[in-house]
Design a protein that fits this description.
Elements (H helix, E strand, L loop, with lengths): L7 H28 L4 E7 L4 H6 L4 H11 L3 E5 L8 H13 L4 E5 L9 H21 L3 E4 L10 H20 L4 E5 L8 H11 L4 E6 L8 H11 L3 E6 L12 H10 L3 E6 L7 H19 L3
Parallel strand pairs: 1-2, 1-8, 2-3, 3-4, 4-5, 5-6, 6-7, 7-8
Helix pairs in contact: 4-5, 5-6, 6-7, 7-8
């Protein structure tokens, strides 16, 4: 057969392939469109879940990684309190260990006190976050949890919002250039209510800030307000800390109801257990992880 001649059978094969390409393209476009709002809820675990053993010195971060593999979680939140140092060699070693274990990081968690009336102290908070952004980058994570802190005596809520937003904005200018998102935790102080958190994020005005949504710690009058504050924060949630009791009332959290809210919003992210129950973590953590696995399987698209 001459190279410039196509027989009928070859032509039909070629035509069939050409016809299939746009059909495949349309199917992929439809799949992308339909999956945009589909929830993607992954199982995570925070190092803080084993605080008892970290504090006693019987667990190191390397041990926690091994435990996370045994638990079968999709990712781990590295609570910085028990990192040996911010030395790049140490952090990249942990990164390599996590890679060898096929264990992604859902994020890193640090302490901060951004609600400072003194400008010099606010600048110090920015530098501290920048230091941990660098450490997070060395570790290979993409999310850094920060705290708003407590409102100083005599200060107004408006002032507190201004101060925290100023720090968040400056810190996110730095973190964003490194592809790292800052999640401000919904946990007491200036971040005790959803409305205040959302206003801080509005003022910070960056795609690299959001809520590290702790579902148990809003400072409210009753359980229904807890659920409404959770719902209000979901659109800006960058990472989720899960417990099974509300801190204020010690009443059980309806986790099925919470997962339904995240699923309805099409949330995509880690649902990370932060265990603080009375039962020993050795037995308490696996029980709650299994509940989280079941809920993620029930409500997630993956």
């Amino acid at each position: 057969m001459r190279y410039d001649t196509i027989n009928r059978r070859d032509f039909l094969k070629t035509a069939g392939t050409a016809a299939a390409v746009p059909m495949l393209g349309n199917a992929l476009a439809h799949a992308d469109s339909s999956s945009t709002n589909s929830p993607r809820l992954l199982v995570g675990c925070c190092a803080l879940s084993y605080k008892k053993y970290f504090d006693a010195g019987s667990m190191k971060m390397e041990d926690f990684f091994k435990k996370a593999v045994e638990l079968g979680v999709n990712g781990v939140d590295v609570t910085s309190y028990w990192l040996r140092s911010t030395d790049p060699e140490y952090l990249t070693g942990l990164r390599h260990l996590a890679f060898q274990s096929c264990l992604p990081f859902s994020g890193v968690a640090i302490r901060t006190e951004m609600c400072q009336s003194d400008a010099a102290k606010r600048a110090e908070e920015v530098r501290n976050i920048q230091k941990w952004v660098d450490a997070t980058q060395w570790l290979g994570a993409s999310h850094l949890r920060v705290f708003g802190g407590n409102l100083p005596k005599g200060a107004s809520e408006k002032q507190g919002i201004d101060w925290v937003a100023e720090v968040m904005k400056a810190a996110s200018d730095y973190s964003g250039k490194r592809g790292i998102t800052l999640g401000i935790e919904s946990h007491g102080g200036i971040t005790g209510r959803a409305a205040t958190i959302m206003e801080i994020l509005r003022r910070a005005d960056s795609p690299y800030v959001g809520v590290n949504l702790d579902i148990s710690n809003f400072e409210v009058k009753g359980d229904e307000e807890q659920y409404s504050d959770i719902a209000a924060c979901i659109p800006r949630a960058t990472h989720v800390h899960v417990r099974d009791l509300f801190t204020e009332t010690e009443r059980p959290i309806d986790l099925d109801r919470v997962w339904k809210m995240f699923a309805a919003a099409g949330h995509k992210g880690y649902m990370s257990l932060e265990y603080e129950g009375k039962e020993d973590p050795v037995t308490g953590v696996p029980k709650l992880i299994e509940r989280i696995k079941g809920l993620c399987k029930k409500y997630s698209s993956v």
